[in-house]
């Protein structure tokens, strides 16, 4: 059977089954249930088509922020950190770390100067070897780059190296991939050139195929020849990236598994900057990678070479089948604001960004996009004007300028305001209002009802950042995921007024935790999902599905439930019932379904449970599957079912409905 969602869960279930408790007892099937239920509940689901309501296609998506080295040293697969030597600033001498000198001060002198051939990023690295042949150490002298806390170099895989070099003399440089201390060479290439070949800046590129693996590897340039050479814009990319577009495959497959319907990018606070001069600027992050200056993100305090730029985000959204949501700075940072009287050039910059995404290939900015390999426009229909800036100086004035200029040129663009319209009426027009919530587990559980009282007309809510945090969450607890699941059930129920929602933050490189918790944790070679990541998989079919009325009657106040009907990719009619038990009592549940269009196809029906023995349990690199969903067959699927719902759990009942056959006699 090709029901992809089920197959994905099946594979995972095989993997984790040995670690898991058998958590749901279907009493009709097993007679005796091992778990004693102190509470009871009845869930009535009306699955008839006339009582359902369509959930917006966009309901659940992702929010990617350049935080925690999520992009640079994260999903962007570039292995060289500080590839243009600009991270130390454009005044020289500058700090060129993490590049590190091989040799000592008598044998080699290394520093930055402003000799780069690239105008917007003038800094290059000057390497002067003071020794020749046997006078040099046997290891040679030069520099190495350890990447972002070690490069993941894999035996037999291809890596494309590009660098720019200049020398006044002939050169004999060996360029190698090695293990962490350079003692083991995994791949090497000698660059031998006469002075006339390299007297001007010369681009060199070739492919490395390591003959061994290292998770903490490095790239090194060494010589045993006296003389001076300069390096600039050094890039090492794995050849095998997600859809060939430069993203780390292991990280992106986790994202793709969530089936996100939109991608909000590139921040968050990252968009604002502590100061405007350090905010993300899209024009500096498009075009040839060598010509991008990079910038220091002063909210999360690290340098980005901006290989992951505006184009790459649009490409990623397209590759994921997700609608791009472009968050643009409207002249407001954490600490400064552009007066509305002076905002016109910022508005023009926003219009240019739309032309870059949507303009024809012969428009000014569309032609830049086309030169980057995407002549067809991207589908950009959502823009957020700023992030968390409502109430700051000039926000509303600036917003209105952006709003009217964008709507005038692109009437179909959906515009998202930072001002919360829940329980109040906005003083400015908007298609969506941004809603962020970071809170305790019990408050998040209660917030499942927060949109019940929302006005049913006016701008729709975009819950672009939600998460349980602080002590209830640690680095990603089961407890947090339970409260968040209940909250999302509340969003499904209120999806007539809430059209989009995304967890935040999405990624953390474990070597640079700037924010806890996060959905996906990685280092250079490994990745795992927190319970909040796995929780989101329960909602991946919701966008575009039909929400069926689901009513709980119970002596427990710790439950939240919803039911949807949806079509699998191979056109099977499916019913999914989700129930969150936030409490510490097991619940004896009766599910009563009415209005089913067909009988339940038992072999294609499953129960999936996310729980653990301790509600504060987390996943980790050493135990990445401690808290993951476990799937078991639903052997007694019926319109009246009984199940014991585990304390502290998320349970789904996924049922395929039998297909009506009209062609049996043909
Ligand atoms: O998600 C982390 C941060 O939280 C975002 O940058 C910001 O929008 C919010 O305050």
Report what the structure shows:
- Strand 20 (382-385), helix 9 (395-409) and strand 21 (414-417) form a beta-alpha-beta unit.
- The strands form seven sheets. Strands 4-16-19-20-21-22-23-24 form an eight-stranded parallel β-sheet. The protein has a seven-stranded antiparallel β-sheet with strand order 3-28-30-31-36-33-34, covered by helices on one side. Strands 5, 8, 9, 11, 12 and 14 form a six-stranded antiparallel β-sheet that branches.
- The longest helix has 16 residues, at 478-493.
- The chain is α+β, with helices and mostly antiparallel strands.
- The two termini are 23 Å apart.
- The structure holds alpha-L-arabinofuranose.
- Its EC number is 3.2.1.55.
- Keywords: Hydrolase, Signal.
- Residues 464-649 form the Alpha-L-arabinofuranosidase C-terminal domain.
- GO terms for molecular function: actin binding; alpha-L-arabinofuranosidase activity.
């Amino acid at each position: 059977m090709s029901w992809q969602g089920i197959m994905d869960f099946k594979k995972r279930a095989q993997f984790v089954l040995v670690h898991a408790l058998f958590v749901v007892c279907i009493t009709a099937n097993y007679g005796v249930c091992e778990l004693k239920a102190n509470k009871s509940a009845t869930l009535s689901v009306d699955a008839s088509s006339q009582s359902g309501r369509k959930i917006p296609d966009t309901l659940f998506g992702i929010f990617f922020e350049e935080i925690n080295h999520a992009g640079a040293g994260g999903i962007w697969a570039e292995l060289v950190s500080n590839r243009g030597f600009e991270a130390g600033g454009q005044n020289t001498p500058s700090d060129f770390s993490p590049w590190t000198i091989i040799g000592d001060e008598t044998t080699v002198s290394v520093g930055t100067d402003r000799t780069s051939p690239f105008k917007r990023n003038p800094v290059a690295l000057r390497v002067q070897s003071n020794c020749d042949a046997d006078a040099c150490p046997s290891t040679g002298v030069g520099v190495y780059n350890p990447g972002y806390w070690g490069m993941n170099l894999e035996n037999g895989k291809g890596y494309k190296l590009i660098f720019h070099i200049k020398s006044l003399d002939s050169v004999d440089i060996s360029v190698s991939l090695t293990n962490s201390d350079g003692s083991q060479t995994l791949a090497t290439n000698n660059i031998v050139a006469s002075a006339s070949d390299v007297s001007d800046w010369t681009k060199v590129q070739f492919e490395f195929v390591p003959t061994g693996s290292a998770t903490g590897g490095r790239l090194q340039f060494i010589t045993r020849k006296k003389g001076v050479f300069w390096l600039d814009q050094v890039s090492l990319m794995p050849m095998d990236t997600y859809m060939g577009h430069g993203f780390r495959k292991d990280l992106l497959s986790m994202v793709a598994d969530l089936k996100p319907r939109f991608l909000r990018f590139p921040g968050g606070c990252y968009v604002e900057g502590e100061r405007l001069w350090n905010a993300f600027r899209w024009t500096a992050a498009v075009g040839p990678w060598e010509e991008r200056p990079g910038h220091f993100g002063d909210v999360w305090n690290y340098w980005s070479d901006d290989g992951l730029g505006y184009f790459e985000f649009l490409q990623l959204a397209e590759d994921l089948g997700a609608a791009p949501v472009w968050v643009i700075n409207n002249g407001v940072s954490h600490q400064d604001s552009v007066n509305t009287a002076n905002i016109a050039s910022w508005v023009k910059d926003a219009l240019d960004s739309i032309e870059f995404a949507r303009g024809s290939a012969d428009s000014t900015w569309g032609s830049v996009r086309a030169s980057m390999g995407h002549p067809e426009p991207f589908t950009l229909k959502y823009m957020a004007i700023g992030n968390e800036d409502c109430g700051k100086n000039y926000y509303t004035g600036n917003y209105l300028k952006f709003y009217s200029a964008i709507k005038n040129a692109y009437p179909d663009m959906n515009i998202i305001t930072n001002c919360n319209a829940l329980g109040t009426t906005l003083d400015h027009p908007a298609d969506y209002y941004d809603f962020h919530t970071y809170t305790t587990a019990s408050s998040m559980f209660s917030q499942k009802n927060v949109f019940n009282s929302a006005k049913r007309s006016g701008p729709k809510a975009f819950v672009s950042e939600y998460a349980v945090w602080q002590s209830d969450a640690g680095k990603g607890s089961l407890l947090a995921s339970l409260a968040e699941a209940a909250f999302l059930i509340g969003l499904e129920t209120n999806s007539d007024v809430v059209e989009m929602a995304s967890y935040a933050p999405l990624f953390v490189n474990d070597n640079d935790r700037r924010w806890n918790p996060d959905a996906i944790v990685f280092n250079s070679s490994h990745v795992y999902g927190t319970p909040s990541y796995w929780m989101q998989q329960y909602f991946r079919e919701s966008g575009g599905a039909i929400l069926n009325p689901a009513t709980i009657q119970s002596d427990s106040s710790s439950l939240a439930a919803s039911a949807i009907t949806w079509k699998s990719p191979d056109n099977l009619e499916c019913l999914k019932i989700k129930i969150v038990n936030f409490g510490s009592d097991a619940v004896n549940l009766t599910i009563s379904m009415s209005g089913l269009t067909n009988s339940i196809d038992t072999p294609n029906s499953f129960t999936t449970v996310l729980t653990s023995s301790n509600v504060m349990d987390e996943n980790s690199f050493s135990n990445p599957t401690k808290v993951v969903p476990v799937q078991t067959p639903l052997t007694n699927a019926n319109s009246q079912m009984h199940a014991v719902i585990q304390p502290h759990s998320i349970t789904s009942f996924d049922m395929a409905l039998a297909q009506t056959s009209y062609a049996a006699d043909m």
